[in-house]
Amino acid sequence: MPVQTHTASNVRRLASATTALPADVAPAGPKGGILNVALRLFAEHGYAGASIRDIAQACNLKPASIYAHYASKEKLLAQLLNLGHEEHFKMVQEAVIDAEPEPFTQLKAYVSGHVRFHAEFPMLATLVNHELHALSAEEVTTALKLREQATNLLMHILKRGQEQGAFATDYDHWLAGAAIGAMGIRVANWYSEQHEKSIEDIVDHYQRFACRLVGTP
Q: Which burial class, exposed, middle or buried, applies to 59 when counting CB atoms under 10 A from its CB (0-12, 13-18, 19+)?
């Protein structure tokens, strides 16, 4: 990645400044507007760094008006994290289902869905990857189940590839999956619409990185 010069005024958690939720998932009316503002502030400043007062001010509302739609700041975060995990799992699962059954093909399909999610929804991905710890045990259950499903899908592909002799066997498949997942996660931090490479180019490179990582027997 090119070296960038940072100053106190331009250091950001992520390069993108575009607030985006998956199509047709944001509630209509004021609830949707509040959710989008909360997404931007949580992504840019962290959950702890954005208050209900900050969200209300950005929405041109009084704090009490936020509570009329969302019982707490945690409820706002929980809804965003559930939406994010749902979209991520949907993208990787659909990509794999649509792919041919060979392990290399399914691995590339999974990587495509994983990287696209982080490039197309960088703010949502930032919350998914960095703010899950802020939820209580009661609120985090849905997101954790979806995360587990996405993880298990990748691990199944990697394990099956080793068992069938399509992938090398001199590595731990769980660690390989962790490395492949981590590569995609970072895309949310540095990608923006102004990046010199398209999402298609980035997906192609990451697919090749993943295939080299699993190797051949």
A: middle
Tens digit of pLDDT for each residue in 72-112?
A: 999 999 999 999 999 999 999 999 999 999 999 999 999 99
Q: Are 187 and 195 in contact (CB under 8 A)?
A: no
The highest-level CATH class for domain 79-214 is mainly alpha
- In the chain, domain spans: 79-214
Burial 21-38 (b: 16+ CB within 10 A, else e): bbeeebeeeebebbbbbb
**Alpha-carbon distances, residue 79 vs 76, 90, 138, 144, 206 (angstroms):** 5, 16, 13, 13, 30
**For residue 110, how far is the Cα from the chain centroid?**
13
Model pTM?
0.92
